[in-house]
Design goal:
The complex is a heterodimer of chains A (96) and B (168).
Chain A (H helix, E strand, L loop, with lengths): L7 E6 L2 E5 L4 E5 H14 L2 H9 L3 E6 L4 E6 H16 L7
Helix pairs in contact in A: 1-3
Chain B lengths: L12 H30 L3 H27 L19 H28 L3 H30 L5 H6 L5
Classes of the chains: A alpha+beta (96), B mainly alpha (168).
Chain lengths: 96, 168
Amino acid sequence: MDTNIGYQIKHLTFCKYALKTPNKTIALSFPQMLELRRKINELTSYSSLTNIVNNDNFVLLFVADKEHLIFLEIPQLLVLKEEIDLLFHTPVSLFV
Amino acid sequence: MNTIVRKQMSIHPDVMDLLNNQIAMEMKASASYLAMASWCDQRELLNSKALFYKQAEEEREHAMKIFEFINDNGGAAISPNVTNVNNDFESLLSIYETALEQEISVTQSIFKIFKAARKADDFITEVFLQWFISEQAEEEDNFRSILDIFGLMEGMPLKMIDERIPTE
């Protein structure tokens, strides 16, 4: 299974970000990005992942102040978590 | 600390998460003191009642201080869920013992954030937390002094012990 299913985060300008999904690109402000980070961190905790696997095996997530709804399966969820971690932790000098 | 999001937020994101946990802890402590105040209020233990109402307010103020700090520094403060507040106590002494244990847990949690801030070179949070460390030392001392009163007045009527509890 290809886990790199097109979820990507781009830093566009000083305070604009973009979340690229397989279907669309969603523009995000920084507070919206922080909220996405919070939700993804919550969803990828051990107990939450177990809960998802034992139930529907996917999550629906509102992003950008509930303007968009995205569908995420576990591999996509984990890819998105990595993308967000990268954005929040990579030093400027290493960020491409 | 020079990440891509540094221009948006002055504090480290991992430290921000710990600060949000601290808000939840302070709000839980506030709710817990309110439960203790109610127990004392129902039993006419006036000085203890006053002390716990005041403590409940203070803990909320601490939470608000952290809440505003996170938002002022570009982060996202999260309003916490407060659940499982214990309203059932066996004695006034056990209430004060629980209060001291609660304060020690809060102190330990602040130390943990302080260490994380230092490790992440988040000096803004480190300096901000210094006030909390002094405050916690004071809080622990207050409750230890009260527990000393219980030791010194062992066997005396509860009302007399309560009258010796400092309200300021």
